[in-house]
Write a structure and sequence with these properties.
The complex is a heterodimer of chains A (116) and B (113). Chain A is 0% helix and 50% strand. Chain A is mainly β. In chain A, the strands form three sheets. In chain A, strands 2, 5, 6, 10, 11 and 12 form a six-stranded mixed β-sheet that branches. The radius of gyration of chain A is 14 Å and the shape is globular. In chain B, strands 2, 4, 5, 6, 9, 10 and 11 form a seven-stranded mixed β-sheet that branches. A four-stranded antiparallel β-sheet of chain B has the order 1-3-8-7, with no helix packed on it. Chain B is built from no helices and eleven strands. Chain B is mainly beta and 113 residues long. In chain B, strand 9 and strand 10 form a beta hairpin. The radius of gyration of chain B is 13 Å and the shape is globular. The chains are: A mainly beta (116), B mainly beta (113). At the A-B interface, strand 5, strand 6 and strand 11 of A face strand 5, strand 9 and strand 10 of B.
Protein backbone atom coordinates (compact mmCIF):
# COMPACT_ATOMS: atom_id res chain seq x y z
CA UNK A 1 0.00 0.00 0.00
CA UNK A 2 1.10 3.52 -0.68
CA UNK A 3 1.68 6.11 1.99
CA UNK A 4 2.77 9.73 2.03
CA UNK A 5 4.65 11.46 4.84
CA UNK A 6 4.83 15.21 5.07
CA UNK A 7 7.52 15.77 7.63
CA UNK A 8 6.43 19.21 8.81
CA UNK A 9 2.89 19.94 9.93
CA UNK A 10 3.60 23.69 10.09
CA UNK A 11 6.21 25.86 8.42
CA UNK A 12 6.38 29.55 9.35
CA UNK A 13 8.53 31.79 7.15
CA UNK A 14 9.02 35.47 6.52
CA UNK A 15 7.95 37.09 3.29
CA UNK A 16 10.52 36.87 0.47
CA UNK A 17 12.35 34.01 2.18
CA UNK A 18 12.83 30.67 0.44
CA UNK A 19 10.80 27.69 1.56
CA UNK A 20 10.93 23.92 1.20
CA UNK A 21 8.04 21.66 2.11
CA UNK A 22 9.10 18.07 2.48
CA UNK A 23 7.31 15.00 1.21
CA UNK A 24 8.36 11.37 1.27
CA UNK A 25 6.37 8.48 -0.13
CA UNK A 26 6.36 4.77 0.34
CA UNK A 27 5.57 2.57 -2.61
CA UNK A 28 6.97 -0.56 -4.16
CA UNK A 29 6.04 0.54 -7.66
CA UNK A 30 6.43 3.55 -9.87
CA UNK A 31 4.21 6.40 -8.83
CA UNK A 32 2.72 9.63 -9.96
CA UNK A 33 3.30 12.49 -7.53
CA UNK A 34 1.33 15.66 -6.93
CA UNK A 35 1.31 18.79 -4.84
CA UNK A 36 -1.99 20.50 -4.10
CA UNK A 37 -2.68 23.78 -2.32
CA UNK A 38 -5.76 24.57 -0.26
CA UNK A 39 -6.37 28.21 0.54
CA UNK A 40 -8.57 29.00 3.55
CA UNK A 41 -12.17 27.96 2.99
CA UNK A 42 -11.48 26.75 -0.53
CA UNK A 43 -11.09 23.46 -2.38
CA UNK A 44 -7.83 21.97 -3.61
CA UNK A 45 -5.86 23.38 -6.51
CA UNK A 46 -3.19 21.46 -8.36
CA UNK A 47 0.24 23.10 -8.05
CA UNK A 48 2.27 20.60 -10.04
CA UNK A 49 2.64 16.94 -10.85
CA UNK A 50 5.32 14.43 -11.77
CA UNK A 51 4.36 11.66 -14.14
CA UNK A 52 7.65 10.85 -15.89
CA UNK A 53 10.62 12.50 -17.54
CA UNK A 54 12.55 15.36 -16.00
CA UNK A 55 12.81 15.05 -12.26
CA UNK A 56 12.48 18.81 -11.77
CA UNK A 57 8.90 19.87 -12.19
CA UNK A 58 7.76 23.47 -12.39
CA UNK A 59 4.28 24.45 -11.36
CA UNK A 60 2.09 27.47 -10.91
CA UNK A 61 2.80 30.47 -8.69
CA UNK A 62 6.58 29.99 -8.89
CA UNK A 63 6.65 26.62 -7.14
CA UNK A 64 8.79 23.70 -8.23
CA UNK A 65 9.43 20.20 -6.96
CA UNK A 66 12.11 17.61 -7.50
CA UNK A 67 11.46 13.90 -7.74
CA UNK A 68 14.19 11.84 -6.13
CA UNK A 69 13.59 8.14 -6.67
CA UNK A 70 16.46 6.94 -4.49
CA UNK A 71 15.28 9.08 -1.59
CA UNK A 72 11.58 8.46 -2.41
CA UNK A 73 11.03 12.17 -1.99
CA UNK A 74 9.17 14.92 -3.79
CA UNK A 75 9.97 18.15 -1.95
CA UNK A 76 8.26 21.40 -2.90
CA UNK A 77 10.27 24.62 -3.11
CA UNK A 78 9.81 28.29 -3.79
CA UNK A 79 12.74 30.73 -3.82
CA UNK A 80 10.78 33.71 -2.48
CA UNK A 81 7.36 33.45 -0.84
CA UNK A 82 4.58 35.98 -0.62
CA UNK A 83 1.95 36.59 2.01
CA UNK A 84 -0.57 35.16 -0.45
CA UNK A 85 1.19 31.77 -0.35
CA UNK A 86 -0.18 31.20 3.14
CA UNK A 87 -2.18 27.98 2.76
CA UNK A 88 -2.24 24.26 3.44
CA UNK A 89 -0.12 22.19 1.07
CA UNK A 90 -0.79 18.53 0.40
CA UNK A 91 1.48 15.98 -1.23
CA UNK A 92 -0.26 13.07 -2.93
CA UNK A 93 0.66 9.89 -4.77
CA UNK A 94 -1.15 7.58 -7.15
CA UNK A 95 -0.24 4.24 -8.63
CA UNK A 96 -0.19 4.30 -12.44
CA UNK A 97 -0.49 0.53 -12.54
CA UNK A 98 -3.84 0.63 -10.75
CA UNK A 99 -5.86 0.11 -13.88
CA UNK A 100 -8.25 2.92 -14.66
CA UNK A 101 -8.76 3.83 -11.03
CA UNK A 102 -6.01 6.27 -10.24
CA UNK A 103 -6.81 6.91 -6.62
CA UNK A 104 -4.89 9.58 -4.78
CA UNK A 105 -3.32 8.97 -1.39
CA UNK A 106 -2.67 12.21 0.47
CA UNK A 107 -0.21 13.25 3.14
CA UNK A 108 -1.45 15.01 6.27
CA UNK A 109 -0.64 18.43 4.90
CA UNK A 110 1.76 21.24 5.77
CA UNK A 111 0.47 24.60 6.85
CA UNK A 112 2.67 27.30 5.35
CA UNK A 113 2.35 30.62 7.11
CA UNK A 114 4.10 33.58 5.53
CA UNK A 115 4.66 36.46 7.91
CA UNK A 116 5.45 40.06 6.96
CA UNK B 1 -9.40 21.15 -17.01
CA UNK B 2 -12.91 20.30 -15.85
CA UNK B 3 -14.89 22.71 -13.72
CA UNK B 4 -16.85 21.25 -10.83
CA UNK B 5 -19.80 22.90 -9.12
CA UNK B 6 -20.40 21.47 -5.68
CA UNK B 7 -23.27 22.33 -3.40
CA UNK B 8 -24.15 23.12 -0.75
CA UNK B 9 -20.96 24.92 0.18
CA UNK B 10 -21.75 24.51 3.85
CA UNK B 11 -24.51 23.28 6.11
CA UNK B 12 -25.32 22.80 9.76
CA UNK B 13 -27.42 19.70 10.38
CA UNK B 14 -29.08 18.02 13.30
CA UNK B 15 -27.82 14.62 14.37
CA UNK B 16 -29.82 11.74 12.98
CA UNK B 17 -30.68 13.55 9.75
CA UNK B 18 -29.18 13.10 6.28
CA UNK B 19 -27.55 15.52 3.85
CA UNK B 20 -27.13 15.06 0.12
CA UNK B 21 -24.19 16.76 -1.56
CA UNK B 22 -24.23 17.37 -5.31
CA UNK B 23 -21.41 17.66 -7.81
CA UNK B 24 -21.92 18.84 -11.36
CA UNK B 25 -19.07 18.67 -13.88
CA UNK B 26 -18.94 20.75 -17.04
CA UNK B 27 -17.73 17.81 -19.13
CA UNK B 28 -18.31 14.09 -19.27
CA UNK B 29 -16.06 12.06 -17.00
CA UNK B 30 -15.84 8.34 -16.43
CA UNK B 31 -15.05 8.36 -12.75
CA UNK B 32 -15.84 10.69 -9.91
CA UNK B 33 -14.24 10.46 -6.51
CA UNK B 34 -15.62 11.47 -3.12
CA UNK B 35 -13.26 12.49 -0.30
CA UNK B 36 -13.65 13.40 3.34
CA UNK B 37 -11.40 15.87 5.13
CA UNK B 38 -11.89 15.73 8.87
CA UNK B 39 -10.88 18.78 10.93
CA UNK B 40 -7.12 19.22 10.86
CA UNK B 41 -6.65 16.07 8.81
CA UNK B 42 -5.80 15.12 5.28
CA UNK B 43 -8.17 13.89 2.62
CA UNK B 44 -9.43 10.33 2.75
CA UNK B 45 -11.08 8.68 -0.23
CA UNK B 46 -14.62 7.53 0.55
CA UNK B 47 -15.57 5.93 -2.75
CA UNK B 48 -15.19 5.94 -6.51
CA UNK B 49 -18.33 6.40 -8.58
CA UNK B 50 -18.63 5.10 -12.13
CA UNK B 51 -21.64 5.89 -14.23
CA UNK B 52 -23.98 2.95 -14.52
CA UNK B 53 -22.47 0.80 -11.80
CA UNK B 54 -22.30 0.58 -8.04
CA UNK B 55 -19.79 2.81 -6.33
CA UNK B 56 -16.63 1.22 -4.97
CA UNK B 57 -16.10 2.02 -1.30
CA UNK B 58 -12.80 2.21 0.53
CA UNK B 59 -12.11 0.37 3.72
CA UNK B 60 -14.01 1.90 6.61
CA UNK B 61 -16.80 3.36 4.48
CA UNK B 62 -20.09 1.62 3.73
CA UNK B 63 -22.91 2.22 1.32
CA UNK B 64 -25.57 2.44 4.02
CA UNK B 65 -23.79 5.40 5.59
CA UNK B 66 -22.61 7.08 2.39
CA UNK B 67 -24.92 6.17 -0.50
CA UNK B 68 -23.75 7.53 -3.83
CA UNK B 69 -25.63 8.09 -7.05
CA UNK B 70 -24.13 8.53 -10.50
CA UNK B 71 -27.00 8.91 -12.92
CA UNK B 72 -24.95 10.27 -15.83
CA UNK B 73 -21.43 11.23 -16.86
CA UNK B 74 -21.59 14.78 -15.48
CA UNK B 75 -23.32 14.43 -12.12
CA UNK B 76 -23.02 12.61 -8.81
CA UNK B 77 -24.40 12.86 -5.31
CA UNK B 78 -23.09 11.73 -1.95
CA UNK B 79 -25.48 11.36 0.97
CA UNK B 80 -24.26 11.40 4.54
CA UNK B 81 -26.89 9.38 6.41
CA UNK B 82 -27.97 9.31 10.03
CA UNK B 83 -25.42 11.95 10.89
CA UNK B 84 -23.52 12.27 14.14
CA UNK B 85 -21.07 14.98 15.26
CA UNK B 86 -18.22 12.71 14.10
CA UNK B 87 -19.40 13.28 10.53
CA UNK B 88 -18.51 16.97 10.76
CA UNK B 89 -16.00 17.34 7.95
CA UNK B 90 -15.38 18.85 4.57
CA UNK B 91 -16.60 16.61 1.77
CA UNK B 92 -15.07 17.04 -1.68
CA UNK B 93 -15.73 15.52 -5.05
CA UNK B 94 -13.03 15.10 -7.64
CA UNK B 95 -12.58 14.07 -11.24
CA UNK B 96 -9.57 13.06 -13.22
CA UNK B 97 -8.52 15.66 -15.74
CA UNK B 98 -5.97 15.63 -18.49
CA UNK B 99 -2.68 13.87 -17.76
CA UNK B 100 -3.75 12.73 -14.31
CA UNK B 101 -4.40 16.25 -13.09
CA UNK B 102 -7.27 15.73 -10.71
CA UNK B 103 -9.73 18.59 -10.25
CA UNK B 104 -11.58 19.12 -6.99
CA UNK B 105 -14.83 20.81 -6.13
CA UNK B 106 -14.76 23.65 -3.63
CA UNK B 107 -16.03 21.35 -0.90
CA UNK B 108 -19.02 21.10 1.43
CA UNK B 109 -18.36 22.10 5.04
CA UNK B 110 -20.67 20.02 7.18
CA UNK B 111 -21.27 20.65 10.86
CA UNK B 112 -23.44 18.21 12.77
CA UNK B 113 -24.93 19.45 16.04
Amino acid sequence: AQSVTQLDSQVPVFEEAPVELRCNYSSSVSVYLFWYVQYPNQGLQLLLKYLSGSTLVKGINGFEAEFNKSQTSFHLRKPSVHISDTAEYFCAVSDPSGGSNYKLTFGKGTLLTVNP
Amino acid sequence: SAVISQKPSRDICQRGTSLTIQCQVDSQVTMMFWYRQQPGQSLTLIATANQGSEATYESGFVIDKFPISRPNLTFSTLTVSNMSPEDSSIYLCSVEGQSRGYTFGSGTRLTVV
